[in-house]
Design brief:
Low-confidence stretches: 1-9, 11-27
Number of strands: 17
Number of helices: 5
Largest sheet: 7 strands, antiparallel
Radius of gyration: 23 Å
């Protein structure tokens, strides 16, 4: 009797193990999305995510935006946070405020995924920036340096409210091989961000067309520190599925997977994602011909 029981038990264990191996194999054959911290904004939420292919290589990193997040946003610039009392009078006036509303998100995978990005910010700008970017829009900063580096860029009277010493450090030229041709320094250095290098070939600069979306590289001390899609609220609301190319340098200072396009995707319920995609692996200093695509 015991022999029969043990035989049945062993058969059951074998079935469970076989099923486990089957499930494990099935998971490994599928793309997976890992989600990070949720933050409230507007009438909804934003949440970071990373999508990996079956080999564990990244195919997308981005921000999921709930339908309500694009509604009931603050209609005027923020004057309660992201402000700096530069004249020491204990009050904030308009010229002492960046004006945006910021949410900080994590990158929910570790360095084994090969991504250079460490954290993300979502910044709502009710009044935009100086022309041609003076339309309500979102900035999505994907940072490739530790948060402490960025937090140490302190406010002051240079650039866009940044300390003059940090302005000098932020505007140090990025080596030509690490910066796409046509990206220019206009002194747009922001505290707790860095220098914003604009694409001189973008439609709003080259052809004076209305700003709807653009891509910016961020720099500090001669290195790229963030990748930034900047997209108007109107563009986010009406776009369902679109991607645009990201200008590429000859190579990057650090090895890893780097995006070649940014995308806005959405559905009829009003949910959106803003993502970096089309990753290409770069060794330190130059690109390899290995591109990773996202499943549709």
């Amino acid at each position: 009797m015991w022999a029969a029981v043990l035989s049945r038990r062993n058969l059951g264990v074998a079935v469970v193990l076989a099923f486990g191996l089957f499930v494990s194999a099935a998971v490994k054959d599928k793309e997976q999305t890992i989600r990070g911290r949720v933050e409230k904004i507007g009438r909804g939420t934003v949440q970071s995510f990373v999508t990996l292919n079956p080999r564990g290589a990244p195919t997308a990193i981005g921000v999921e935006i709930s339908a309500g997040a694009l509604e009931e946003l603050p209609p005027v610039p923020n004057t309660t946070s992201r402000c700096y009392d530069l004249d020491g009078n204990g009050k904030h006036t308009g010229h002492e405020c960046i004006g945006d509303v910021e949410r900080i998100l994590d990158v929910p995978v570790d360095s084994s995924a090969g991504l250079p990005f460490k954290w993300i910010t979502v910044n709502w700008n009710a009044a935009g920036h100086p022309a041609p970017y003076n339309r309500p829009h979102f900035d999505f900063h994907f940072y490739a340096v530790d948060r402490a580096v960025v937090e140490a860029i302190t406010p002051g009277r240079c650039g866009e409210l940044v300390d003059c010493g940090h302005f000098t450090r932020a505007t140090r030229p990025v080596p030509a091989q690490h910066l796409p041709t046509g990206h220019i320094n206009v002194g747009a250095v922001v505290p707790r961000m860095g220098n914003h290098l604009l694409d001189s070939q973008s439609p709003e600069l080259k052809d004076s067309l209305p700003f709807t979306r653009t891509f910016i590289y961020g720099a500090y001390e001669g290195e790229l520190i963030f990748w930034e899609p900047m997209i108007t609220l109107d563009m986010l609301r009406k776009t369902r599925n679109a991607c645009w190319s990201i200008s590429q340098p000859q190579g990057f200072a650090q090895a890893g997977y780097y995006p070649t396009r940014y995308c806005v995707r959405g559905n009829r319920e009003g949910e959106r994602t803003v993502s970096l995609e089309g990753f290409r692996y770069s060794t330190a200093g130059r690109d390899k011909d290995v591109q990773v695509e996202r499943s549709r």
